[in-house]
Amino acid sequence: MAKNSPKQKNKSYSNIGFNTPVPEHPSLNEVYEDTPFSEAFWTYLNYVILNIFGWFRDLLRNARIENRKGSAENNPPGFVPLYQSYESFYTRNVYQRIADCFNRPIGSVPGGTLDLLERVTDDYNWSFNFTGDKVKTINLGSYNYLGFANNSGQIAENVINSIKTSGVSAASAAQECGTLTQHRKLESLLAEFLGTEDAIAFGMGFATNALNIPTLVGKGCLILSDELNHTSLVLGSRLSGAVIKVYKHNDMIHLEKLLRDYIVSGQPRTHRPWRKILIIVEGVYSMEGSLCKLPELIELKKKYKAFLYLDEAHSIGAMGSRGRGVVDYWKCDVNDVDILMGTFTKSFAAAGGYIAGKKELIDHIRIASHAQTYAVSMSPPVVEQVISVLNLLIDENEEHEGRQKINQLAWNTHYFRQRLTKMGFIVYGHPHSPVVPALLYSPSKIAAFNREMLKRGVAVVTVGFPATPLVLGRVRFCLSASHTKEMLDEVLKHAEEVGDLLNMRKSKLNPKRPFHETEL
Amino acid sequence: MGSPVNRDDIARLATDFYSLLESFKQTPFYHLIFEIFLILTVLWLVCFRKPRPIAKKLTEKEKQELIDEWQPEPLVPPVDTNHPALNVRVLDGIVGKTIEIDGRKSLNFATFNFLNFVGNQRIADKAIQAVQKYGVGSCGPRGFYGTIDIHLELEERLARFFNFEEGIIYSYGFSTIASIIPAYSKRNDILFVDEGIHYAIQKGVEASRSTVKWFRHNDINDLERLLAEQDKHDKKNPKKASTIRRFLIIEGLYMNYGDICPLPRMVELKYKYKYRIFMDESVSFGTIGQTGRGVTEYHNVDRQKIDLISSTLEYSVGSIGGFAVGSSFVIDHQRLSAQGYCFSASLPPLLAAAAIEALNIMDEENSGLFETLMDKSKRLHKKLLDIKGYRVLGEDISPLKHLSLANSLNTIGRLEYIVEFAQTRGITITIARYLNDEHHLPEPSIRLILNVEMTDEELEFLCTVLQEALVKVTA
Q1: Which of A354, A366, B265, B326 sees the fewest Cβ atoms within 10 Å?
Q2: Which Gene3D superfamilies does this UniProt record tie to the protein (chain B) (predicted)?
Q3: Contact assessment for residue A437 and residue A118, using Cβ atoms and an 8 Å cutoff
């Protein structure tokens, strides 16, 4: 795991790190503790045992000694099998054992608390039945950073009015007959909020990346993308046809080396100069909880004349003293970032994505974007939700709801992270990011932590391979402005219990302490 | 000239030569081998080895110069401010049978509102109830507390509507088919694709990185020819052929042309050449067939023979999103490997509620919606043909038709003029918009869409306006 050591500077090609602009408030360093040897050992052993059992069960299934669960092919024999059996080995033998931890259906607003539909399984997670009961839990799994997921209040009233006056959909593409006055209003409000010249909104965050990166870069261009970038960015880069090179996560020295090497050597084989170079980063990385190093990136981009694409899916609304994302957090100039992208699903509790930047950029996207030409435009009630939230966030008054929520989230983040770290958990990520991953390492602990917390009334998200590296399974807490101090205290107490049960609190940097001793 | 060569010299030479040969016999064996090896090496070096160029290493100074000299293109190319995408009509209010632009109403023949569900009161009420129960956003992907019970209900209803085992919903129509195809078809597989498919399907085909074989639009003979070629190729290497999956990607009713695919013959060929059929019924769902169940109902084909039917909730259903239905064996795979499903937030509950209510209305026994729609389409088709001067593309029962002018007259400029003229007379129509990198760019055309609630007088009015426009534009 990457270590945070300033001593690595002997390999720098330029003076990055020595003269970088210092933001107004000090950025606290991210700390990634080394994996304890014992954990790595037990995790690998865990996987070996799972593999042996999996191989053995597959043998039994092929010999028809064990009944094959799950469905079978409809077509007569002679067709090439639809799935290779080795491709779904992991699904059948590892994922299926812990499938009850994922895809849990809910029956209420995904707010600070959540109503889960209780389900039971008779055949070891191959099929589920609902008992009809609901389990009330504290919700640490939904991306509801600012707590705007509500079914009552002024915003919900606005949404209901907009359904009555504009219907649920326009049923036409934006370039044909699908542009409504609300869309224009949303775009101008968004540009005002972010401080850019213009903005454009789409109906799905994933599609915003996948359908618009091909309009910006094409054959003959170079894309430098961070190791941990989201699937939508990877898909968009692949569909564009440009050459993609990956640099180590947040490693500016590696990025600079790649920039220098690739500008000098040019396009592969023909060695023609590149048409454009695009650096793609995210604001907050959802699995690590880390922030991108924006001041250094901007300096690099200016030095080498590259373009910067910043995906603020998780950071818009959640980071920054005014809620305007990592650009606001690092106090950088928003005109330095060429393309600002974000989604409305997380902090705005709606659905959709946006791109903001200079007017020429947005005009080009209006003409050339796949989504504007072929896909149906955003649904009016969803647009209304985003407009209402934007109005609240633009309001600078400290007494009003927008600022209160931003401050509450910042306080929650600080409080929760401090106490969790002091209790001895190994926590990754930046101290100010509302995404808090605590390491679990082995797949069995992933399942156990999830189920034990559910028994105690807390809904968490635990992830393992392939979303994370093989050895680094983790639980990811998503904090929200709708969590009160009491809720967080309850979660921490339960986490302490379960952490002891699973022997998780093994941090060497912060030796474990009981809950009551970690008061701030 | 030296002394004349005489017999003695020759004899001496012969003796020398003979003793040389004798000495060869006396040398150790390894020495001989070594000498032969050396001779062969010299021969090879002289005759066969090409001189390798010495790799140039650039100095730091040269590298810095290259870096300083390099200039990128501007991020975006210069933009034409007169491009139609920058001067779109901005609408207000409900985009239903009539729409309002700048305060003036006009009849709507442009949006995909086949069954006039946009603005329907029942659907709006259900959507409002969903907002009051669940809020607006679902705040998470399906795997992490984004699955709401209303999603499960919608999936079940869709599967029941088509009489399939399972359904799966996506939160965006474009991403549905674009995520489904790469989930099944990988680099080694073969896709037989119709040339006239929609752009979203083209993106799915591109993202899958499979081998693509395009056949001419709706030309079943061309498809058979490609299949026969592939079959011949397979027989040469049957072991490899047994690892290559084959898929046929078609649409039920083609959006770019308005015609229906020849499904029965394609299903026959499926069992002969052993490929799977993925059919996209975005336009034909809710418009074709006695009960709106699409092309399988129209052609009277057993639906279970189609491996996967994908469609959208954005056209006839009047909500947002997309879905796919099929057997559990096929559909379940997408829950872990379709990118647009796993890595994206789920559909907002109010849109799912709207879709469920729309399905309820479609399911009602004596609505007669679909027969009315097919009937009116037929009548409109005849009326359009009567105008004489327009080329009308599309089946007569299809509610989506493409109008274009005859041959050389057919330019975007003239079509734009017709659209503007119609707007001044109170009819909203639109030109079908395409991007230039379509695989098979269709001819410019006006895409006419029929709303089931249009009356006969309104259809007559449409034809009158089109007639007048035609006269003006060809004058």
Answers
A1: B265
A2: Aspartate Aminotransferase, domain 1, Type I PLP-dependent aspartate aminotransferase-like (Major domain)
A3: no
Q: Are both A199 and A331 inside the same structural domain? A: yes
State the smallest CA–CA distance between residue A231 and chain B in angstroms: 7
* Distance from chain centroid for Cα B467: 35
Q: Are residues A417 and A435 in the same domain?
A: yes
Q: Which domain holds residue B417?
A: 89-117+368-474
> Which SS3 state, helix, strand or coil, does residue B164 take?
coil
Work out whether strand B147-148 and strand A105-106 pair parallel, antiparallel, or are unpaired.
Answer: parallel
Interface check B143 vs A, CB under 8 A: yes
> Cβ(A313)–Cβ(A342) under 8 Å?
yes
Q: Collapse the DSSP code of A358 into the 3-class scheme (helix H, G, I; strand E, B; otherwise coil) and give the result.
A: coil
| Token pair belonging to B106 | 């006009």
Put residue B25 in one of left, alpha, beta given phi > 0 → left and psi -120 to 50 → alpha. Answer: alpha
Asked if B83 lies within 8 A of A367 by C-beta distance, the reply is yes
Asked whether residue B3 is domain-assigned, the answer is no
Domain span at residue A136 reads 105-147+400-502
Give the pLDDT of residue A24. 45
Q: Read off the pLDDT of each residue in B226-238 and give the average, rounded to a whole number.
A: 91
Last residue of a domain, one of B363, B378, B406: B363
Say whether both A271 and A419 belong to one domain: no
pLDDT mean across residues, chain B: 89
In eight-state DSSP terms, residue B430 is E
| Percent of chain B with pLDDT strictly greater than 70 | 97
DSSP label at residue A100: G
- Is residue B282 one of the residues assigned to a domain? yes
List, for residues B1-43, the tens digit of each pLDDT value. 456 667 888 888 888 888 888 877 777 888 889 999 999 999 9
Total structural domains within chain B: 2
A242 touches chain B (CB under 8 A): no
Closest to B91 in 3D by CA, of A164, A190, A4, A178: A178
In angstroms and rounded to an integer, the radius of gyration of the C-alpha atoms of chain B is 35
- What ipTM is given for this predicted complex? 0.90
Q: What does the pLDDT average to over A469-493? A: 91
CA atoms within 13 A on the CB side of A293: 21
Is residue A177 in some structural domain? yes
Would A409 be classed as within a structural domain?
A: yes
The answer to whether residues A84 and A201 belong to one domain is no
Number of domains observed in the structure of chain A: 3
- Has residue B441 been placed in a domain? yes
User: What CATH number does the domain containing B288 carry?
Assistant: 3.40.640.10
Within 8 A by CB and 6+ apart from A107, the residues are A115, A116, A117, A134, B148, B149
Residue-wise over B399-427: b if at least 16 C-beta within 10 A, else e?
bbbbbbbeeeebeeebbeebbebbbeeeb
- Name chain A contacts of B203, Cβ cutoff 8 Å: 211, 239, 370
A440-465 pLDDT, tens per residue? 888 889 999 999 999 999 999 999 88
Residue A87 domain flag: yes
Instruction: Judge whether B394 is closer than 8 Å to chain A, CB to CB.
Output: no
Task: Examine the domain organization and report whether A134 and A220 are in the same domain.
Answer: no
> Quick check: is B60 in a domain?
no
Is residue A483 assigned to a domain? yes
